[in-house]
Amino acid sequence: MTPPQVVVHQDQKLLAQAVADRLVTRIVEAQADRGSASVVLTGGGVGTAVLAELNALGARDAIDWGRLDVWWGDERFLPAGDEERNETGARGALLDHVPLDPARVHAMGASDGPDGDDPEAAAERYAAELRAAARPEDHGPAPRFDVVLLGIGPDAHVASLFPELPALREEERTVVAVHGSPKPPPVRISLTFPAIRAAEEVWVLASGESKAQAVRLALDPEAGPLQVPAAGARGRRATVFLLDRAAAAELPPGLERIASP
Ligand SMILES: O=C1O[C@H](COP(=O)(O)O)[C@@H](O)[C@H](O)[C@H]1O
């Protein structure tokens, strides 16, 4: 595993635009190499802003949308269409505006879905969908996603992996139900570290001073993922922290970073 790279942009708008550009490039490259691409979306402020910027980009037409698999890193376990669901935000910002193949949009279960109000069953259903999508060359129970996008909370949570909760200790299952999330709503579904770490690239997105401490800890080689979940989110080929200046404010001066104007 290579050490994380850090890229700093001036503000949230420029950060979201730059990540959208980067995502187009990565998807197009993967489609050229393998014929299709896969991305894992995040909810949250910057994650949704990236999708809105991607929707506004002329370059979005370079993507073959019918050959893109869209997954989620986590979901709030609420009824379908609820404004608080990460899926709802992603659909409004981008997914409803591009010609995706609906069979390749892999939303996590809703609390009024086929499993009823049973998040464990919905998590197992998602794990089965990941297993079915994994190719022999992925050598595991989940696809080697091209890119996993992750927001980060002020408590350094990523996806719905919150400090000290049991989901962080999961070593086998790729998806789990999360109960007692300190950030509402309390019940969620989340990819686990084994699924996230199967990705080729993990991109951690952070904007604003409220994330500065979490970002510093996530990049501290001494930090452990049970207290600092973002410290455990790493890709096989690359891990990139894409930040705005406010989120990068507490990084030690020696840390290598690429700054943008
Ligand atoms: O609850 C969640 O929060 C995080 C971070 O959101 P932000 O608005 O502080 O950027 C997000 O990554 C996650 O997907 C979401 O469910």
UniProtKB/TrEMBL annotation:
EC number: 3.1.1.31
Pfam family, one: Glucosamine_iso
Hydrolase found in the keyword field: yes
Gene Ontology molecular function: any one: 6-phosphogluconolactonase activity
Pathway as given in its UniProt record: Carbohydrate degradation; pentose phosphate pathway; D-ribulose 5-phosphate from D-glucose 6-phosphate (oxidative stage): step 2/3
Keywords: Hydrolase
Domain Glucosamine/galactosamine-6-phosphate isomerase residue range list: 11-237
The keyword Hydrolase is assigned to this record: yes
Catalytic activity from the UniProt record: 6-phospho-D-glucono-1,5-lactone + H2O = 6-phospho-D-gluconate + H(+)
Function: Hydrolysis of 6-phosphogluconolactone to 6-phosphogluconate.
Family listed: Belongs to the glucosamine/galactosamine-6-phosphate isomerase family. 6-phosphogluconolactonase subfamily.
Protein name, entry field: 6-phosphogluconolactonase
Organism per entry: Actinomadura parmotrematis
Gene it is expressed from: pgl
